[in-house]
Design a protein that fits this description.
Shape: globular
Radius of gyration: 22 Å
Largest sheet: 8 strands, mixed
Number of strands: 10
Low-confidence stretches: none
Strand content: 5-15%
Structural class: alpha+beta
Length: about 425
């Protein structure tokens, strides 16, 4: 263990020396350079879509426009009223819209607005057939009008999970982390702990355990930790595509770059959900052949088996969610809080800042990836635990979990 700690410290000293000079030189983003033009394009497109004729004629362009509006949180701009009017108009011609447009509109309304669309949603809700649309519309009405019951066919897996979610969403989440640290340390590879509040609007923190079971520390000797946001811009729950990052366990897949310009050039850390990857990626023993609840729960200490939210990643993977990674962001921060990462569409994000010429100024994501080394690695071993600590109305800070970290370190120090 001593050698492992020394290696981590040396790596961080080298990292600190190189950060300011190398990071800004290596990473450039064309998307950042387009921030101003995208805002201007958004405003001009609003003028175009005031005409229902243009809406009907340009479904593909409208979808791209709405996607930009969603991921960039355009609700926060001076065009707020014009954008709201456009959405109301889209509900008026709902039956003429494509399925993908309908879903994007519902995602925008759920993620960016409050009660302004109750009438629109109530009007179209009885007509909905697609279970994803039904789920989003119901969640919106549940939040703003209090409706709590709906009927569904048991073959509708998304709606079945919605029913389960509604029944358990107010259950307490308070947990002691020492037992999960001890349990995770028995597995091979790196272990990441993404610790969140129940309200995902608050940022959480991520800490890392190395292959030897030691928590990674920075050059000052403090536990390495970074703010991490696991709230989707849609703020939908775990079982809906593009919803919040599901709680539970993931397999570490590797580190590489993404082709998505909104994620940017800084390497991502890829993680895999149950069912997205085989149980072998989750270090299954020979007694388990395929995915089951009993194997999944074996990845947690027995004292955690009673917490319903630990199975979110299992259910999300079973329902077809995939590609939930940890990454940075090149999205224009104008409409977001400056003290926490920018939300994505289901992944967890770390804070990055960019200069207007497209250069990277700082990156918590880059610091996190350096723990794994400089190489791009497609095959790695390890686990990620996404944990909802409790329902306190504040961001998670290192001080909130320091006692459990200290207890873990005390328990393993003589091993």
């Amino acid at each position: 263990m001593k050698n492992g700690k020394l290696g981590i410290l040396i790596r961080f000293l080298i990292f600190l020396f190189l950060t300011n000079s190398l990071v800004s030189q290596e990473y450039k983003s064309e998307n950042v350079q387009k921030w101003k033009s995208k805002t201007e394009s958004f405003e001009s497109s609003l003028e175009v879509y005031k005409s229902k004729k243009n809406i009907k004629k340009n479904h593909k362009e409208l979808y791209e426009f709405l996607t930009d509006a969603l991921v960039s949180n355009r609700r926060g701009e001076n065009t707020d009223k014009e954008f709201e009017d456009l959405l109301h108009n889209l509900f008026l011609i709902w039956r003429t819209l494509s399925e993908e447009l309908k879903i994007r509109i519902l995602e925008i309304v759920h993620g960016l607005w409050d009660k302004e669309f109750i009438y629109d949603i109530e009007r179209i809700y009885p007509e909905l057939k697609d279970e994803r649309m039904i789920a989003i519309a119901f969640l919106y009405l549940n939040k703003h009008t209090g409706i709590s019951e709906f009927s569904y066919n048991k073959k509708n897996r998304v709606l079945h999970e919605l029913s389960s979610y509604i029944s358990k969403k107010n259950q307490p989440t308070e947990k002691n982390l020492t037992s999960i640290f001890l349990h995770a340390s028995e597995y091979e590879g790196w272990k990441f702990f993404n610790i969140q509040r129940k309200n995902r609007t608050h940022s959480g923190i991520i800490i890392v355990m190395d292959e030897s079971g030691n928590f990674v520390k920075d050059s000052s000797g403090k536990i390495f930790n970074k703010k991490i946001l696991s709230r989707s811009i849609t703020n939908l729950p775990y079982f809906v595509i593009n919803g919040n990052t599901p709680s539970g366990v993931y397999a570490l897949i590797g580190k590489n770059t993404s082709s998505n310009p909104l994620i940017g050039p800084v390497p991502v850390i890829k993680f895999g959900l149950p069912y997205e990857y085989s149980i072998q990626k989750f270090q299954a023993t020979r007694e388990y052949k395929d995915w089951s609840l009993s194997f999944y729960k074996s990845l947690f200490p027995k004292s955690w088996h009673e917490y319903p939210e630990i199975t979110e990643s299992l259910q999300a993977g079973k329902l077809g969610r995939s590609g939930i990674w940890i990454h940075g962001s090149t999205i224009d921060p104008m409409n977001f809080s400056s003290d926490k990462p920018i939300p994505a569409l289901g992944c967890s994000t770390l804070l990055e800042t960019w200069s207007t010429d497209g250069g990277l100024s700082s990156s918590d994501q880059w610091e996190l990836t350096q723990i794994l080394g400089d190489e791009k690695l497609e095959v790695m071993k390890g686990l990620l635990y996404v944990i909802e600590l409790n329902d306190e109305d504040s961001s998670v800070e290192l001080e909130d979990i320091q006692d459990e970290i200290d207890e873990y370190i005390f328990l393993i120090k003589d091993e």
